[in-house]
Amino acid sequence: MLTKIGYINAYWIWVFLTVLFTVIEVFTFGLVTVWFALASFIMIFLAFIPKFPFMYQIMVFLALSAVILIYTRPIAIKKFKMGRVKTNVESLVGMNALVTKKIGEFDKGEVKLNGQIWSAHSEDGSIIEEGTKCEVVRIEGVHAIVKKN
């Protein structure tokens, strides 16, 4: 005997929820509802257990969703590299640049970075001669802060 809710078998509710959560995830791709879709998919099969009240099914669904969310979301986020996306300026940090105008202790110089000329200062105030390769440490406004490689 299947668990009944009125005239509808409980497994149809879980089928509906699986489809609903999957469709929401497809349109948002935020790794939010996929965990509920997985839990409701498992619940489709658990709904076939005889004399398994729907109220208990809901509790199992919530517990399953929480367990799947807690243990797999961090792995999925790391795998898909989700989270903060670097902006254009932030992506320049760590890149190599070529000094095109001598950087003095108190004078700004220039570096060629990613095909563009940037005003530059050395990170530690040291002098960096023209033609030297350096690394971008950070960007402050329109100035690249660099250090010798």
Q: Tell me the total number of β-strands.
A: 7
* Helix share bin: 25-40%
User: For the CA atoms, what is the radius of gyration?
Assistant: 28 Å
Largest sheet: 5 strands, mixed, barrel
β-sheet strand percentage: 15-25%
Task: Give a verbal description of the structure.
The protein is an alpha+beta fold. The chain has 2 domains: 4-80, no CATH class; 90-148, OB fold (Dihydrolipoamide Acetyltransferase, E2P), CATH 2.40.50.140. It is 40% helix and 24% strand. The chain is built from 3 helices and 7 strands, in the order ββαααβββββ. It has helices spanning 10-28, 34-46, 54-80; strands spanning 4-5, 8-9, 96-101, 109-113, 116-122, 133-140, 143-148. Strands 3-4-5-7-6 form a 5-stranded mixed β-barrel. Strands 1-2 form a two-stranded antiparallel sheet. Strand 1 and strand 2 (8-9) form a beta hairpin. The longest helix has 27 residues, at 54-80. The mean pLDDT is 87.
Write a concise synopsis of the structure shown.
By secondary structure, the protein is an alpha+beta fold. Helix content is 40%, strand content 24%. It folds into two domains: 77 residues, no CATH class; 59 residues, OB fold (Dihydrolipoamide Acetyltransferase, E2P) (Beta Barrel), CATH 2.40.50.140.
